[in-house]
Write a structure and sequence with these properties.
globular; mainly alpha; disordered C terminus; single chain
């Protein structure tokens, strides 16, 4: 379990650290649509570094999910916010204030609470019906930015953030399935799911770049992270038979930790809202 926690923390650092490189690259091409933006970002050093860090973070998370529950993994991923706040302040010159520090503190408390409570590490046995229902809910939002661009309308940064967050949430659930397949000889299914993750991650990544064109990283990223982290937690007991503690005290600590974590993410989001107009005017 300890090794799984280490992998999850390293994945959080890699994925959140990549945001700064992606934001810098995306803002150099503010007027590009999604396909051209993805091409231009991948062609420069900052964009390529961000993409490489993102991919490396996913591999580390896959390794983590072999050893820890999806619930714990999702919460540990919020630890990367500390690195994001520091890098956004240093490299993107985005201001930090007391609210953001409070938000980071709440996230830290949430991580500690969830880490202290045992959550049963269930097996990946997702039913087809689960996939159909979940996909029907999230697919319209994920595809909405592309539909708007087809209509020659620029998607709002919050829509791009929501689409990206839900897309990443979906890949997180699939990654948990893939982690359960490792070592069981189901390589054809694993490869098929890997292709699906690659496609969905590309869509989510493009939505993220679109959002970063218009919004500040410290606003866009918390929205993405809130959905990316919390959405997979809700169905985890049904999808993967993860068991929450039956003891009222432990259950209270777990729920309090989840709430504190979510509130911390929301606080970071609202504290950063003032950066949006300023960021849009920067060249």
């Amino acid at each position: 379990m300890v090794l799984g926690i280490i992998f999850a923390l390293l994945a959080a650092a890699a994925q959140n650290g990549s945001i700064v490189f992606l934001a810098r690259s995306a803002r150099a091409h503010r007027d590009e649509d999604a396909p051209r933006l993805l091409l231009h970002v991948s062609e420069n050093l900052a964009g390529f570094a961000g993409m490489a860090m993102n991919t490396g973070g996913w591999v580390l998370e896959l390794l983590a999910l072999r050893r820890i529950s999806l619930t714990l993994d999702r919460i540990l991923m919020t630890a990367g916010f500390a690195l994001l706040l520091w890098l956004a302040h240093r490299e993107l010159h985005e201001r930090l204030n007391g609210k953001e520090l409070v938000g980071a503190g709440l996230i830290g408390l949430g991580i500690a609470a969830v880490a202290l409570v045992p959550v049963g590490h269930g097996q990946a046995s997702v039913k087809v019906s689960h996939w159909v229902v979940f996909s029907a809910v999230v697919a319209p939002v994920i595809l909405a930015p592309y539909a708007m661009q087809r209509l020659h309308r620029r998607p709002p940064s919050m829509l791009g953030s929501a689409a990206s967050g839900l897309g990443y949430a979906l890949t997180g659930i699939v990654t948990k399935v893939m982690a359960g397949l490792i070592g069981h000889g189901s390589w054809l299914i694993f490869v098929a799911l890997l292709a699906g993750v690659g496609l969905m991650d590309t869509v989510s990544f493009t939505d993220e770049l679109t959002a970063l064109q218009q919004g500040a990283a410290t606003l866009v990223v918390p929205v993405i992270a809130a959905l990316r982290i919390m959405v997979p937690i809700a169905p985890a007991p049904f999808f993967f038979a993860e068991t929450w503690p039956s003891d009222p005290l432990q259950l209270g600590i777990l729920v309090s930790g989840l709430v504190a974590n979510l509130v911390g993410v929301v606080v970071l989001t609202t504290a950063s809202a003032g950066f949006v107009a300023e960021t849009r005017n920067k060249k």
